[in-house]
Each structure stands twice: as C-alpha cells, then as structure tokens.
Amino acid sequence: MTAQLNARGDVAVLVPAAGAGVRLGPGGPKALRLLDGEPLLVHAIRRVAAAPSVRMIVVAAPAAEVDAVAALLAPVAPVTVVSGGAERQESVGLALAAVPDDIPIALVHDAARALAPPALIESIAAAVRSGRPAVIPVLPVVDTIKQVGPGDVVHGTVDRSVLRSVQTPQGFRRDVLAAAHAGATDPLTDDAGLVEKAGVEVTCVPGSDLAMKITRPLDLVLAEALLRVP
Ligand code: C5P
Predict the structure, then answer these.
(1) Residue with the nearest Cα to atom 1 of ligand 1?
(2) Ligand 1 centroid to 154 CA: how many Å?
(3) Which of 25, 51, 76, 128 fits as disulfide partner to 121, beta carbons 3.0 to 4.6 Å?
(4) How many helices (H) and strands (E) does the chain have?
(5) What DSSP string runs through 173-198?
(6) Ligand 1 in contact with 63 (CB < 6 A)?
(7) Quick check: is 4 in a domain?
(8) Which domain holds residue 213?
C-alpha cells in the first residue's frame, strides 16, 4: 500500500507517532492533541503534503492503531501507515523500510511540530539535494544557559553563541539515514544524533518560529494564535 503524492518528488517524510498509549480523540498524547478542533498529526501531515518535493509520507503508528490512524489521515493526504516499534528509533527505522529505493531523500518530522510550514520542508530538502548528507533546522538560543549541580547551585554559564535549538524536519540522504539506523546501538532522541555518531557531517539551516514544538498548554494557545495569522 504505497500512497504517493507528487510522483516527481524526491522526498519521503517519516513521522514517528507510535509512542505507547497513542489513542485517537481528545486528551490523548501529543500527536493527537486537538488544535483548532483537529489532531496535531493532521495539521502536520497537511503541511508536509503541501510541500512540492514530497512524494511519500510514512507515519509509524502503534500496531493496534494503524487502521484508525490511516482512516484519520485518508481525507488529509495519501499517507502510508506502518506499525511502529518499541522505541522511537525503531519506529523511524520501520517507516524508512517502507520507502522505495528510488526516493533519495528522507526527512524525519515530529508531529508535535504541527505548524512547520511547507517552505521549511522545502528548504531542508533543497539543502540535502545540494549535497549535504544531513541537515537540521535550528534557531539561536535566546535565553542565558546555566550549568547547574546538586542543590540547584550554578556551576557555570554556557557560551550561548555556539548553541542552537534544533527543530524538525531533519533531512538526510536516505542511504546515510539507513546506514546510521543499521549501525545504531544506543537509542537517541534525534536522528541527526545518530548520523553524527556515525561520523557524518550535519549542517544547520535556519529554522522557523512556526516549527515550534507544541507540548505545553501555553504552546497550544500560541499555536491557535499562529493559525489566525494571515
Ligand atoms: O515518547 P517520546 O516523547 O520520546 O516520543 C517522541 C515521538 O516518537 C512521539 O511522536 C512518539 O509517538 C514517537 N514514538 C514512536 N515509537 C515509539 C516511541 C515513540 O514512534 N516506540
């Protein structure tokens, strides 16, 4: 069941959403939390599908929810839904396995970054297409960052000019991502971390305020406001 978007696209977008306890409906986990009456996953997939480079979207869902997630997304875009694994990393690996060999670029995207705009997806894809093996969207760190030890005692102040806050989608040459997953030992929270460990150069490109991670109640309020911006 290979669902296609733009047949001339060269990008597959992988969305791991197979965390334990994922259930459709309100009050559930992040990916299915409602924003303006629709699950975050629906908002995210709509924007991914609007990016012209995207040929295929693969969502990893919990085994028991594959049919329900497929039914939820069917009206939004052609999406392939696969069973996820025990860890996020395994879910990404299983989603990647569903991508045909002739798609050279793979992006991994977090459904909680539901308002990441098509232009950001295109800019990540373009950077990979231009020869970068791994590309991440970043923003400067605006807060002062302290290192803190036991008893909440400050040990030092970090030079924030060398720090970046990392968003998704993270983009990869598909073979680079596949090799990093095949060789992975310890689970990491982000895919660029895996390819970094494999010795691959990871390049930063400008992120987007719209790609904020929607996790706390205040984020939902902000996101609702962003939806109203023309
Ligand atoms: O649980 P955590 O916040 O680390 O999950 C991050 C993302 O990875 C979520 O979108 C979750 O659904 C996904 N995930 C997954 N498969 C797992 C665990 C988490 O796709 N086994």
Answers:
(1) 19
(2) 32
(3) 51
(4) 7, 12
(5) EHHHHHHHHHH--S--S-HHHHHHHT
(6) no
(7) no
(8) 11-227
CATH code assigned at 97: 3.90.550.10
Q: Which tokens hold the place of 116?
A: 């990441």
Report how far apart, in Å, the C-alpha atoms of 4 and of each of 32, 61, 97, 100 are.
23, 19, 16, 11
Total structural domains within the chain: 1
pLDDT digits (tens, 9 = 90+) for 25-83: 444 567 888 899 999 999 999 999 999 999 999 999 989 889 999 999 999 999 999 99
CA dihedral 94, 99, 104, 106 (to 10 degrees): -50
Please report whether residue 122 resides in a domain: yes
Protein residue whose Cα sits closest to atom 11 of ligand 1: 19
Cβ pair 220, 214 in contact under 8 A: yes
Quote the distance between the C-alpha of residue 143 and its chain's center.
24
SS3 35: strand
Measured in angstroms, how far is the CA atom of residue 63 from the centroid of ligand 1? 13
How does pLDDT run across 196-209, given as a tens digit for each residue? 999 999 999 999 99
pLDDT one-digit tens code per residue, 69-123: 999 999 999 999 999 999 899 999 999 999 999 999 999 999 999 999 999 999 9
Q: What is the pLDDT of residue 23?
A: 44
Range of lowest pLDDT (70-79, 169-178, 184-193): 184-193
